[in-house]
């Protein structure tokens, strides 16, 4: 029996799912809770930085992490109270999709910048940002037109740069990276389950928060904690 109070009917493929009041509240809360911790976490990494490259990596990563939670929360709040804000809602929906590309690139940046890479692999430091720019442009011009293509773009953006990380000589933190990535992959099952599983999108948010938290821990422990920092690193 469908839980009418907590879940609406599944939307047609050409329309967006309309959450219930409870689902709207859960969608807002599950990312709003992480805004302050993400800002504090980014500042902490910046304060732990010992050189210019660590500062840049901390700034980009902190900006990507906090932007993900801030924009997601704003979008879901506007979507919840959208009676006279349809154009604003559409704008923030685009931003919510665009920031995912920025967040993925920002999450890879500390690893690609602060770890020694081979000559070919080093190019991935800027390739991830080219990919993020391409994904952002795709959302701007084709937002919600080809949902499967958009999903494939996110998966490619998340997986392709990881091939470089697997080739690093120093593989400390790899376990945490795989576990965090697994959280995102498992969460995607709920990302496409609105109207099938109650609070599916909020559950997806929780998986995102878990994945981001595990990845943050790995960055803090293996790239910014002094005892784990290498004596010399080629940038």
From TrEMBL:
The keyword Transmembrane applies. It is found in: Endomembrane system. The chain crosses the membrane at residues 25-47, 59-78, 98-114, 120-141, 148-168, 203-220. One of its GO terms (molecular function) is metal ion binding. Keywords: Membrane, Metal-binding, Transmembrane, Transmembrane helix, Zinc. GO terms for cellular component: endomembrane system; membrane. It comes from the Eukaryota. Pfam families: HlyIII. It is a multi-pass membrane protein. Zn(2+) binds at residues 76, 201, 205. Belongs to the ADIPOR family. NCBIfam families: hlyIII. This is Monocyte to macrophage differentiation factor 2-like isoform X1. It comes from Carassius auratus.
């Amino acid at each position: 029996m469908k839980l009418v109070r907590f879940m609406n009917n599944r939307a047609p493929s050409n329309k967006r799912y309309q959450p219930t009041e409870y689902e709207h509240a859960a969608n807002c809360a599950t990312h709003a809770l992480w805004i302050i911790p993400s800002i504090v976490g980014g500042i902490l990494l910046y304060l732990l930085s010992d050189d210019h490259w660590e500062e840049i990596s901390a700034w980009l990563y902190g900006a990507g992490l906090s932007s993900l939670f801030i924009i997601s929360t704003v979008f879901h709040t506007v979507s919840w109270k959208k009676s006279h804000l349809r154009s604003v809602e559409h704008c923030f929906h685009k931003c919510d999709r665009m920031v995912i590309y920025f967040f993925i690139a920002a999450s890879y940046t500390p690893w690609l910048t602060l770890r020694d890479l081979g000559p070919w692999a080093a190019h991935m430091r800027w390739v991830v940002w080219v990919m993020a720019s391409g994904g952002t442009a795709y959302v701007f011009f084709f937002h919600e037109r080809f949902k499967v293509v958009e999903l494939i773009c996110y998966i490619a953006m998340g997986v392709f740069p990881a091939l470089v990380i697997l080739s690093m000589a120093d593989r400390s933190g790899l376990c945490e990276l795989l576990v965090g990535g697994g959280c995102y992959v498992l969460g995607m099952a709920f990302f496409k389950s609105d109207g099938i599983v109650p609070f599916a999108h909020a559950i997806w948010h929780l998986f995102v928060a878990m994945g981001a938290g595990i990845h943050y821990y790995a960055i803090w422990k293996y790239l910014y904690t002094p005892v784990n920092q290498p004596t010399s690193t080629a940038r």
